[in-house]
Amino acid sequence: MDNKASDFNFEEELKKLPEKPGVYLMHAKDDSIIYVGKAIKLKNRVRQYFQSSRTRTPKIEKMVANIAYFEYIVTDSELEALVLENNLIKEHSPRYNTMLKDDKTYPFIKITVDEAFPRIMLSRQMKRDKCKYYGPFTSAAAVKDTIDLLKKLYHIRSCDRVLPRDIGKSRPCLYHQIHQCDAPCQGLISEETYRENVNKVLAFLEGGYKPVLSELQEKMNKAASELEFEEAAEYRDLIDSIMHVTGKQRITSSDSSDRDVIAIAMNEKEAVVVAFFVREGKILGREHFHMRGSEGENASDILNAFMKQYYSGTPYIPKEILIEEEIFEHQVIEDWLSGRLESKVHIIAPKRGEKVRLMELAHENAEMILKQDLEKIKRREEKTLGAVKEMEDLLGLTGLNRMESFDISHISGTNSVASMVVFENGRAKKSDYRKFKLRTVTGPDDYKSMEEVLTRRFTDKRFDILPDLLLMDGGKGQVNIALKVLEELKLNVKVVGMVKDDNHRTRGLYYNNEEVDFPKKSEAFNLVTRIQDETHRFAITYHKQLRDKSQVKSILDDIKGVGPERRRELMHHFKDVEGIRNASASELKKCSKITAEVAENIYRFFHEED
């Protein structure tokens, strides 16, 4: 359907809806997609949104009020609709869909067992190939540690050389020199012996690390008895590494099943989903996810949305998934995951026994994370919104949502620049920062410089918003310059100066011809300090960039016909400018990029100066 908002007739279009499975897309007036859903029967599902008698959540009420038109895509089955719905939600991130805030991919250990000399590496995808994958792990660092350990133990390569085709074609790499690879690329180990080492790696990753520990313990004791203490220390460190890696897993189940355990914690505004990854009866790790747009949704609906979005992105699907609440699309999601795994997947909401205890552990973690996040949000609001409220009270103002701060930077009047930083609701808004290179002022005149910058800022049509408060990095003088500019432009913006003490530290604010002190341990004081430091940092950084840029200019750039490539070749051939100065025109022409004409230009440039 191509109908747009201007000519969309809801009554007529609702009549045309088919009684077939599919996906529907709700659009706002600006054509943006604000909601994506799937239906077993499009006719029934879409019509429900526009029936006045139906009870709807506040979120859905708000969404419906913003619908300008809808469109739909018919599919052959509900399963096809589910896959399409997932793809469209990921592509468009609709405002009113409950969505994962995180877009994580989980690392695996990959062994290329289909190769003559298999490699070990970290992989972010579990493909349907002939390789072996172990994981997923929740920490890339843990995967890298494990790979490093296995290379030390079994000398398995991780390079991308094609063997045996490339044997002997290049020198062995650093890993051979530090005794972590037996250099199959040089033919220094047979395919059979190498394969034995690979089999030991596979056994280790499948839980058989105890024989390795025993072997290393014997070697450590033997080295120590022969007074080879450095060698013994190496074995000791390897033992510690194995204990560290394997110690991250703990037995949580009496069986050896692979399963994910999914629990949820929520309040009026926030929802956190926790997933425990259990592999072969051991917890490999835990991950948590924040759900956007969860207001007004119940736990079952949020889990339903989570299941579809999370398992469409993760490469590994276990045969059993435990969930805290029953979900309304239980069967179709189960069928979809079974199709992806090519084996039956069971989604279970446990009611008793050991699985309930696992679920309680996951829920406890979800509640803990939600509580921590709420405390974090509270602390952040105290530092931001709380600080703004303190400033409003101290200055007797209200509505200080947007603050802009300016500073001038120069060294002895050269390369004068200005910075503008923006804070909204007490937080830096870096997308609105601006840099100014002074155009009309020469020399170290800060007042004239600030007058130019403020005039440019408040007359530039690209700035379509005014600040609620203007902060000047200085006292009375800078404030008066700002007030003069604003008066000339007939703009009503409050102005304060950020006053520093003799040690160049923030002391207070200058407002309405008097200095306003505030408690040094207050959030308002910390906010002003942050703004002042950020303004200064941004100006200094820009000034340094310009200064560095001017300093890389070479004397050779002033010679006609000499650009960056010819300059590099001349410096490579003659080593320095003095060598170029002393060269004859015929010597200059020996550089492949230097023509006879350019050689003459270079020679005349130096010798006519003399």
Query: Could you name the CATH homologous superfamily of the largest domain?
Result: UvrC, RNAse H endonuclease domain
Rg for CA atoms:
34 Å
Number of strands: 21
Would you identify the regions where 5 or more consecutive residues have pLDDT less than 50?
247-254
Separation of termini?
78 Å
Architecture of the largest domain, according to CATH?
2-Layer Sandwich
Q: Which fold name fills CATH's third level, the topology of the largest domain? A: Nucleotidyltransferase, domain 5
Helix content: 40-55%
Whole-number tally of structural domains: 5
- Shape assignment: extended
How many individual helices?
Answer: 20
What structural category characterises the helix and strand content? alpha+beta
* Mean model confidence by pLDDT: 83
What does this structure look like?
This protein has 610 residues and is α+β, with helices and mostly antiparallel strands. It folds into five domains: 5-97, GIY-YIG endonuclease (3-Layer(aba) Sandwich), CATH 3.40.1440; 108-208, no CATH class; 259-378, Nucleotidyltransferase, domain 5 (2-Layer Sandwich), CATH 3.30.420.10; 388-549, UvrC, RNAse H endonuclease domain (Nucleotidyltransferase, domain 5); 555-609, DNA polymerase, domain 1, CATH 1.10.150.20. The protein contains 20 helices and 21 strands. The strands form four sheets. Strands 14, 15, 16, 17, 18, 19, 20 and 21 form an eight-stranded mixed beta sheet that branches. Strands 4, 8, 9, 10, 11, 12 and 13 form a seven-stranded mixed beta sheet that branches. Strands 2-1-3 form a three-stranded antiparallel beta sheet. Strand 9 and strand 10 (271-279) form a beta hairpin. It is extended. The model is unreliable at 247-254 (pLDDT under 50).
